[in-house]
Amino acid sequence: MKLLENLIDIPSPSGSEFLMRDFxxxxxxxxxxxxxxxxxxxxxxxxxxxxILVFGEPRTAIFxxxxxxxxxxxxxDQLVPIGGPHAETGYELVGRDGMGFIDARLRVxxxxxxxxxxxxxxxxxxxxTWKPNLKANAEFIEGPYMDNRLGIYNALKVAETLEDGMxxxxxxxxxxxxxxxxxxxxxxENHPSVKQALISDITWVTEGVxxxxxxxxxxxxxxxxxxxxxxxxxxxxxxxxxxxxLEVEGGxxxxxxxVHHSPYPIDWVFIGAPEDxxxxxxxxVHIKDLVAMISLYKFLMEHL
Amino acid sequence: MKLLENLIDIPSPSGSEFLMRDFxxxxxxxxxxxxxxxxxxxxxxxxxxxxILVFGEPRTAIFxxxxxxxxxxxxxDQLVPIGGPHAETGYELVGRDGMGFIDARLRVxxxxxxxxxxxxxxxxxxxxTWKPNLKANAEFIEGPYMDNRLGIYNALKVAETLEDGMxxxxxxxxxxxxxxxxxxxxxxENHPSVKQALISDITWVTEGVxxxxxxxxxxxxxxxxxxxxxxxxxxxxxxxxxxxxLEVEGGxxxxxxxVHHSPYPIDWVFIGAPEDxxxxxxxxVHIKDLVAMISLYKFLMEHL
Amino acid sequence: MKLLENLIDIPSPSGSEFLMRDFxxxxxxxxxxxxxxxxxxxxxxxxxxxxILVFGEPRTAIFxxxxxxxxxxxxxDQLVPIGGPHAETGYELVGRDGMGFIDARLRVxxxxxxxxxxxxxxxxxxxxTWKPNLKANAEFIEGPYMDNRLGIYNALKVAETLEDGMxxxxxxxxxxxxxxxxxxxxxxENHPSVKQALISDITWVTEGVxxxxxxxxxxxxxxxxxxxxxxxxxxxxxxxxxxxxLEVEGGxxxxxxxVHHSPYPIDWVFIGAPEDxxxxxxxxVHIKDLVAMISLYKFLMEHL
Lengths: 304, 304, 304
Fold this sequence. Notes:
The structure is a homotrimer. In chain A, about 55% of the residues are buried. An eight-stranded mixed β-sheet of chain A has the order 1-2-12-3-13-17-15-16, with helices on both faces. A six-stranded antiparallel beta barrel of chain A has the order 4-5-8-7-6-9. Chain A folds into two domains: about 1-70 and about 135-304, 3-Layer(aba) Sandwich (Aminopeptidase), CATH 3.40.630.10; about 70-130, CATH 2.40.30.40. In chain A, helix 5 links the parallel strand 15 and strand 16 (about 245-250). Chain A is an alpha+beta fold. In chain A, about 30% of the residues lie in helices and about 30% in strands. The two termini of chain A are about 30 Å apart. In chain A, helix 3 (about 145-160) packs across helix 7.
């Protein structure tokens, strides 16, 4: 929980992932001496604000996006969304501009225009994010940015015992993408043996995917993975004994979209715990599903 | 007709192109000893489910997509479309899941939600496609998946006498693309002399493109080819003596979209016979237009 | 003004940029002996209709798109838009087909369908553009295609004293893009030291960006540049003393979109004078803002 709290405290709306990247570099440097394999850290220069961990001889990459939805201050008290936040009047927003710390409230008018309420004007271009507020009980974890702090958390837990594999912390997922083309190129040019990607991200509770029934394996969303790869994943998931649910959606997408459309031959599948209250400050995930997610990732990273 | 019937019998909705690829590999291996030039077959590994045929010293590539529209089974009796099928209650759908062969009926409710009618539940994630049913008379060929079985058929007919050229059988065209970036990279890295692409696909009968008036040369759809390349194509089309029609649309797209947006310098143009009843089980193409299509492709592949 | 008039006289709707490219090659060859550094011209072959100028040891590339919005003649008197023209009945359109010069009028019906009025039929596939008509007074320049003739003009003015840098004249910006993937690949492979891009283009007058208040630095549009790069740009802009305005939008995009999504690590920011009457024949830009644009580009190209 301490690690998850730390992850949720760090603001990283799309375009400003650098603080999260710095935290992760620091965390991996401190923690990895205890891990089964100490990974190579790749960052800086041509990787912009992204971070890659390389363990042993990788065949499969875990993608976990570091960015979150949020808001950009426009003119006067106007806000422009970053990604697709679920906006309701009264939600608390935090940020920082040249005049100091900001703790504002969101206001949504009848035309769904977005504004902030705060005693002073906030500088144009300032980014605001949901106020951190993590709650947990025996069953659920609830707070802002389960999507994708839990995807990162999953990757860091898998890292502890990972022998051969790659973990890719990406940017811009919530806002149209843009980092994965560069990251897949890096992978292809430097680790051509990596031809499989697991998208470590959080999905939606729906009529077919419920809380507490296991991690969701997405057979498709707006994009469709290759059937041959899905069949291998499902056979291994059965073998693993981990509880999982099948997801089939017509919409929605993830870093998988850009892996799919990249010029490099990397198969992909989205595997993640489901949440409700999507993109609100109260995203909620069942702990059993998170545990199943970590277990399934460990199994797949070993056997794929 | 036997070849076309075989093509239509094989299910290959986007994501599941492998059966069609396997059929084509087999067909080419058996037939090509009779062809003017025996092509090199490239497939497997980094090409995923795609297939490339290389003849002599290629300058131009024919792209023919192997995938079709269809449906994915969601939860209960729900369906999610693959690509943009024209859905009407009563259309017959076939498929196969762990419990065996499926011959179901499509049902569309008032809100345009899609369902199947079948005596038992079909497994989540199963794909369904139009039931094969090819009809032909002296004028027309009619059935499901003229788009793009005829595009494949055209490529295989052109292959018989092709001396220098490339034929690319691609995936995912009906569902947002994703294979062409990889395929153009392969082409650029392995056959940099290929700088021209003909998109062998089927277009729409409209107020300006009619049945029986020849193959359509598309001057634009949602994307616009380079004017300089179009001018060369039109000059050669005139020289060929083949009957053709000019198409100008503001929407629609093809594998040409991804060739256009790829980082590699490959010009493209869509050339194909028109159909009506688009994306229904009764797509209909005039035989004269298909014959013109094959003739124009043969001429262009020689003279471009 | 003579240079700008020349630029506006040349038709170059998306897909037909070659005339503008030829003009620019000619202009640079004639003018560059007077410049601080004579650039290397790169064009032809794999660059299709695009043009790149290389000065000294470049670190930063200016992108200025050569194409404009316009119309394609469909069937009968129908028109299909190229890009997103602001269409009003009566606007004058010019072009040329096999039967000669065309000076037609635009007609928009109640359903926003587009037509031309001209005494004869125009050949299918012919492109039409706004009739050139440049006006200027002490304050404003007004006419068609300020977007992006002024972006080109800016680049050519900066070129006069540029020592180290690159200028990229691109295609297809108004119509969904397609040249920038190829251009960024060229840059990455041939000039890997270029990791920064300034998008030299014209933006909109809005409630937050006014005529005469300086060049606009866009902190975001539909896409979001990296915060770390924006911070450097803003620090340099302050240092430059040039008057500028901050822009924050939720929509709109530019060549920056494709730089952002390319597989190559190139940061980008849109910097341009604002206009009103966007995409009409009467686009209007304040001369002070254009002068500020040129000054800021000169400063940034030196100090970035």
